[in-house]
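Here is one chain, start to finish.
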Amino acid sequence: MSKTRTARSSRGFEIMRFHKAIEVTEQEAHAITCTSTSAVSNVVVISQGDRYFDVRTMTEAEIKAFADDLARAEYAGLKAATAHKH
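Its structure:
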């Protein structure tokens, strides 16, 4: 189960919870998808924009929670950027 705490990624994006997902490069993500034979679920990499995450050790429920958190963080960032323009 994911631990709950707020963290900030290396690119400054706030992530609402700490997850077991590991941020990887695009090249690493490609290698994982081409060679991965062991994963808890059928999903091995999640991408959002130019960010890639290795999720092989996560269950489907954890992956869904992580994807939801990524979407919330992206929305919060867009909302904040829009608020600063006014």
